[in-house]
Amino acid sequence: MKIGALTEVFPGENRVAMTPESGLQLVKLGHACVIQAGAGAKAGFSDALYTAAGVEVLADAKAVIKAADVIVKVRGPEAAELATLKKGQTLISFFWPAQNPELLAAAAKKNLTVVAMDMVPRISRAQKMDALSSMANIAGYRAVIEAGSNFGRFFTGQVTAAGKVPPAKVLIVGAGVAGLAAIGTSVSLGAIVHAFDVRPEVAEQIESMGASFVFLEFEATQDGAATGGYAAPSSPEFREKQLAKFRELAPEMDIVITTALIPGRPAPKLWTEDMVRMMKPGSVIVDLAAERGGNCDLTVPDEKFTTENGVTIVGYTDFPSRMAAQASTLYATNIRHMLTDLTPKKDGVIVHNMEDDVIRGATVSHAGAVTYPPPPPKIAAIAAAKPKPKVVELTPAERRAQEVAAFTAQTRNQVTLLAVGGGLMLLAGLFAPASFMSHFIVFVLSVFIGFQVIWNVSHSLHTPLMAVTNAISSIIILGALIQIGSGSWLVVVLAALAVFMAGINIFGGFMVTRRMLAMFQKS
Q1: pLDDT over 90 at 512, yes or no
Q2: Nearest of 106, 76, 54, 105 to residue 6 by alpha carbon
Q3: What pLDDT, on the 0 to 100 scale, is given for residue 200?
Q4: Which of 230, 316, 331, 372 is labelled catalytic?
């Protein structure tokens, strides 16, 4: 099959759906690759690089569409672009079927097989094809860089001869893929980072990255996660608590990055106009949800402006495109993985298996019919973690009852152990000679005393204790010294070896003990 990549016609779009590296990998799958001349230029990939990778460069889009069996793009096709595609062709790109029903119907009418990269199900096996996550990761990183370029201070705190610079305080609203990328970047730059999400299970992820999770004191239990790994819409009561918390934080924050967005829905308004007025002059808001209306009341899509009180609001909608080389590399890899699944035998023949959860979920048009929306995947998507059960505080009476029960059980075990041991010793005394019993009793008592001593020692002191025990147990060196004067050369050799090994045990035991105990000393 021939895989063809077109130049993106959307204004300001710099990404490309095929890179020289991905083209090379597709050739290994048995496919042939063609690309429109200049398609990768804005992302830093020249036509010469494609030619060197075995990708054929064609003059224009018409030539690519005529030659290719599969068309790969970044942005969904415009109506005019769709009209130029051949009947029966396969298109792989972002498509947003819920927002483009007319375009979807037109694709089905032309008998196009459309694989929407925005519809890849969020299951573990499909992570390598999850283009939404790939682009969100870049957007989160770029948002912090964009905020830094508009912020008048360092991210990290510094103490210099010219004065002290406090660290920037950053608030990330939404801890999805973009939010986590923004958290990681902000923390690495040295800022004090706070993050909020309606899903309480992400608190541990946020804190593990070095940020502080913003908790809400909200009595009603609400599961903030929805099917597919996205956040669910909040209840009105929860939203009011959330906005109240943001109003409390607004005067302290230097940078606010909002990432709350569910595909196919308008962006929730989380940063209101009065919060913007509360912020300090020089503060920056970066709204990653600007394309769907923005999380901030004042966001203007595709624009950056400064409010009357000196707050800069960035509403760009093309963050991944602003890092075109990296974004194209990741997106082209997602496309390549999708084509790998569509080519199961790696023989250049595409098999569109509609029984496969990933392929079926991403396919929105096939065999002349609209196949959107897909059925739920047989494998459950990323689900919300169950909340941890709260630890019940015991009353003094309950705590006392537990202690008494534990003491009673321990006493019963010890009495049983002594009774069984005494019975066995009595049984042994009836049949064993007196000389054996005297030694046996000493042995049993020493084992009992040693057990009681070691059992009550803290685990951290077990190593030095055992080292001393080894040293003391090397009293066997006395027997070796007595035998070393024997007239037999074999006994002398064995006695010398015993002295050597026992000496290592003695000196090594005390040395290990000394070093271990030094670890617990302050000086």
Answers
A1: no
A2: 76
A3: 82
A4: 230
pLDDT in tens, 425-484: 788 878 888 777 777 778 877 777 777 766 666 666 666 666 666 666 677 788 888 888
Catalytic site residue from 133, 242, 321, 328: 133
Catalytic position from the list 122, 153, 239, 322: 122
- Catalytic residue at 399? no
* Tally of CA atoms within 13 A in the half-sphere of 399 that contains its CB: 5
Residue corresponding to tokens 């969020």? 122
The confidence score (pLDDT) of residue 221 equals: 47
- The first and second tokens of residue 47, run together, are 């036509």
Contact yes or no for 374/227 (Cβ under 8 A): no
Retrieve residue 429's tokens: 């005394």
pLDDT for 24 beyond 90: yes
- Identify whether 50 is a catalytic site residue: no
36 is a catalytic site residue:
no
Please state the rounded mean pLDDT for residues 375-388: 62
CA terminus-to-terminus distance, the chain: 73
Q: Is 316 annotated as catalytic?
A: no
* 96-128 pLDDT per residue, tens: 999 999 999 999 999 999 999 999 998 888 999
Q: Which of 208, 209, 308, 191 is nearest to 255 (CA)?
A: 191
- The residue length of the chain stands at 523
In b/e form, how buried is each residue of 93-104, taking b as 16+ CB within 10 angstroms? bbbbbbebeebb
The β-bridge relationship of strands 284-287 and 304-306 is unpaired
Distance between CA atoms of residues 178 and 180, nearest Å: 6
Q: Which residues pair with 192 in a beta bridge?
A: 169
What are 396-432's pLDDT values in tens digits? 888 889 889 999 998 999 899 889 988 887 888 788 8
Catalytic residue check, 452: no
**List 69, 127, 222, 239, catalytic entry:** 127
Rounded distance, CA 476 to CA 494, Å?
13
> Of 130, 287, 356, 357, which one is the catalytic site residue?
130
Strand, coil or helix: 364: strand
- Phi and psi, residue 335, nearest 5°: -60, -45
Distances (CA, A) of 344 to 347, 348, 433, 484, 486: 8, 9, 80, 77, 80
